[in-house]
Amino acid sequence: MFNEKVHVMTHPLVAHKLTIMRDKNTSVKDFRELVSEVGMLITYEATRDLPLTTKEVETPICKAEMPTLAGKKFAVVPILRAGLGLVDGVLRLVPSARVGHIGMYRDEETLQPHVYFSKMPKDVAERDVIIVDPMLATGGSAVAAITEMKRRGCQNIKLMVLVAAPEGIAAVQKDHPDVDIYCGAVDEGLNERGYIVPGLGDAGDRIFGTK
């Protein structure tokens, strides 16, 4: 259905946790915690290609050359505000990562997203970047965020979401075919209001308790 740039998680823990998140009766506290947990599990897959080198360590038995991360610089960039819910999960696995932020508003006439806030590490162009947002619906915000990061000189960019619609994946691949997409699940599609079906509702409202 999708090409090799789209990575859909098949792990039973991801599927189980997403099902709890989809339940409209799940509390804000539990929803927020699950966003972080699933984000951490997807990060595990999204960082599978991090380069390794070796270092000498002394175990209780002997000295040995052991694998260690090669020190590639890394940044996580949440799309405000819902993307903030995924940051902790990423940082639990990559605690040395820097964090940038992108805020957007949608033009009421054209419905196109525009960046109103962008604060990044000074050396972000030298870093591998993961853009995070719980939902990939129409794809407009993700496309705009990726465009912003490329404008800043970033070359190795990944997009990580919890739930994606085929329409959103298609939009990202049309404008940014070089970007790998990591998602917990791909749902049926969008309804007339642009919400993912069956989806899990407005992720920002459910994370921050503003629904």
Task: List key phrases describing it.
7-stranded parallel sheet; alpha/beta; 211 residues
Provide a descriptive summary of the structure in words.
With 211 residues, the chain is an alpha/beta fold. The chain contains six helices and 13 strands. The strands form four sheets. Strands 1, 4, 5, 8, 9, 10 and 11 form a seven-stranded parallel β-sheet that branches. The protein has a two-stranded antiparallel ribbon with strand order 2-3. It has a two-stranded antiparallel sheet with strand order 6-7. Helix 2 crosses helix 3. The model has no long low-confidence stretch (mean pLDDT 93).
Q: How is the secondary structure organized here?
A:
Elements: E1 6-8, H1 12-22, H2 28-46, E2 52-58, E3 63-69, E4 74-78, H3 84-93, E5 98-99, E6 101-106, E7 113-119, E8 128-132, E9 135-136, H4 140-151, E10 157-164, H5 166-175, E11 180-186, E12 189-190, E13 196-197, H6 203-208
Parallel strand pairs: 1-11, 4-5, 4-8, 8-10, 9-10, 10-11
Antiparallel strand pairs: 2-3, 6-7, 12-13
Q: How is this structure best summarized?
A:
The protein has 211 residues and is α/β, with parallel strands linked by helices. The chain has six helices and 13 strands. A hairpin with a 4-residue loop joins strand 2 and strand 3.
